[in-house]
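The authors assume throughout that readers already know how a fold can be written as discrete tokens. The format is easy to grasp once an entry is in front of the reader. For illustration, here is how one protein appears when written out as sequence plus structure tokens:
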Amino acid sequence: MTADLRKLPTGFGRLWTAQTVSSLGDGVTHAALPLLALTLTRDPLALAVVTAAGTLPWLLFGVLGGALVDRWDRRRTMWVADAARAALLAIPAAAAALDVLSIPLLAAVAFFLGVGGLFFDTAATAYLPDLLGRDPALLERANSRLRGAQTAMSGFAGPPAGSALLTLGRAVPLVADAVSFAVSALLVRSLPAAPRPVPQARESLLRQARAGASYVFRDRVLLGLALRPAVGNIAFLAVETVLALFAHDRLGIGAFGFGLLLTAEATGGLLGAAIASFLGRRLGTGAALTFTAAVEGLAILGLAAAPNPYAAGLALAVCGAAMGATMVLAPSLRQTIVPAHLMGRVASTSRMLAMCAAPFGAFLGGWLATAYDVRTPLYTAAGLLLTMTAVTATMTSNRRVEAALRAAAPASETRDPVQEPAL
């Protein structure tokens, strides 16, 4: 039986359900947390502190977190992280109910939610290849379903639900997110146990973290996979920083129309996640990644030149589709070719590079719009994306990808998928 015809194991259904429920809660909090902060202050700097606090864990110790995940049991790491986030949200929920909520408390909550997210996301990325026996086709199917559910829940259902729940009381969306984390923790705890990571020689945590980072920088395929989201975040944050202003000043779009623009991008993301495996089969994974990267750059170029809201919405939908496909193909390839004992560190290194690049994009977008014109950040972002595509095309070519897959094949062929425990 070919890999394409094999069914995903039962355990994946529980993992998918856990991440879907958790993504819905994330979407609720994503909308509710800034709105809660807005009820406390109108100071833009204070609001920015709450937003930035959630990204700090990746910037401060993303690679160290990956090294810890490579030492720990991945399933236990996931459910403990979600259980801790559920308990953490009880604090601001109680503070909101008692009318003692504050900006420092919200910033602290955002920071520790980010810590939990760092450990959960890294452990989940490392656990999935074990669950699926490192099968490339199964990993693409699984990541497609996970990405689609995440987009639907955190991009479509969660934010309006968070806004609606906030009207019922300031504590309500926080309680809802806490429940989502608790449900996720229970589901993850019921997953089959994965093989424990191979114990490393007596090395310090810092040395192990450095080994994981150097593994990424020495491997041209992995470096290419890491550079794309890093440069992409600079470009996309430059666009995001001025998108509302561009939509209002150049396209004549109000608040409702701006929401529709964002919905168009999310809709494209769902489509891209669904067709990612098809693109990989038709073009080869390396060529498909180059194709989607080029489409992202051209779509942003189309957005910059858009004469009306309809053209802008189409450009964002196309960009979202390319991003959705990339976010299925790239992680699936990484999960297939990276040794199990390094998976946490490699995943966290790549994520940290992307997170570190994001603030530069926000600054770049604001500066270019101030110094030149509101369209300038969009044209610059398109140029960055297309340049990055040209630079990384040879790094992740079909030839290099196929060589990496052949090198990883002996390890994956001796590795069966994680089995459910006997009852």
User: Anything to note?
Assistant: The first helix runs from residue 10 to 40. The CA atoms of residues 31 and 159 lie 5 Å apart. The chain has two domains: 10-194, 209-416. The mean pLDDT is 87.
